[in-house]
């Protein structure tokens, strides 16, 4: 007998298959787990391929904002290290270079407490550990951790299962600290040395005059804008190209692409940090929200942050499902003080005084 399945029953079955709590909720944990499963089959592929496959498989099941949520989750999986994003990848057509996603091999990073931060994908499994360890897996958003049992050597156990042990120092590596003025000056110097660019089609501009609390609303058409802006533009294959441009009456007269040759950082990471520096210099710093409750402090962010910053916050604290923010993390009071200083020093952010 054929029955028409309800949307909530389909989602509940999918969650169970992915090893998640059985419910009809399409939350961040479910989207991340579903993307990992799809990536295990599809990678290497372009970000657009993974996005399209996830959205198409949930037609009639998810809301209108599902594509945006999936796009944010893909970026989160790249930031945390489950997916590797490589630019300038050459495929069958050697004249076409694009950005592709690759599945990171199963690996882990150990916290000082002994908790293992699980990374990477297994092509034929929802999680790259055996069933007995899957039962101990804790998921929060895109992060997955395993706590050691009393007397257990979790490092030896995971290494014996074939997972690669990544050092905390290498995994949390970040750019050098520099002042906002110096960062923007270096970009301006690079732009000054560029010759006039030709016509740049489909350019989108990150307008710093718009409220930073609404990141997506800051993107606009060039119109008749004048000045220097963070920009992005689509390419035929792969993720959008990011850059820094000088506009005259809405037309790009000079343009540099991110990342520059030899850089280990993603184009979007360079662009997001640069915009934070620009906002700080304009006297309108991007703000984070700090909320203390009992023995925990929650820090909410309203714009994307570079992957190296996201890794650090998720590793030191605990990633939460955000409410009225883009990203949310929980820390102990001592950890929060250190991470707030990190946000000020490296991302030029300031605490929202309304939440002091």
Which keywords apply here?
single chain; 356 residues; alpha+beta; Arc Repressor Mutant, subunit A; 4 domains; 11 helices; globular
Please, could you describe this protein's structure?
There is one protein chain. This protein is globular. Residues about 90-95 have low confidence and may be disordered. The strands form 4 sheets. The protein has a 5-stranded mixed β-sheet, with helices on one face. The chain has a 5-stranded antiparallel β-sheet with strand order 9-8-10-11-12, covered by helices on one side. Strands 15-16-14-13-17 form a 5-stranded mixed β-sheet, with helices on one face. A hairpin with a 2-residue loop joins strand 13 and strand 14. The chain has helices spanning about 5-15, 30-40, 45-55, 65-80, 130-135, 155-160, 170, 180-190, 265-280, 305-315, 335-345; strands at about 85-90, 95-105, 105-110, 115-120, 135-140, 145, 165, 205, 220, 225-235, 240-250, 250-260, 285-295, 295-300, 320, 325-330, 350. The chain contains 11 helices and 17 strands. The protein has about 350 residues and is α+β, with helices and mostly antiparallel strands. The protein has 4 domains: about 5-105, Arc Repressor Mutant, subunit A, CATH 1.10.10; about 105-170, no CATH class; about 180-280, no CATH class; about 285-355, Translation Initiation Factor Eif1 (2-Layer Sandwich), CATH 3.30.780.
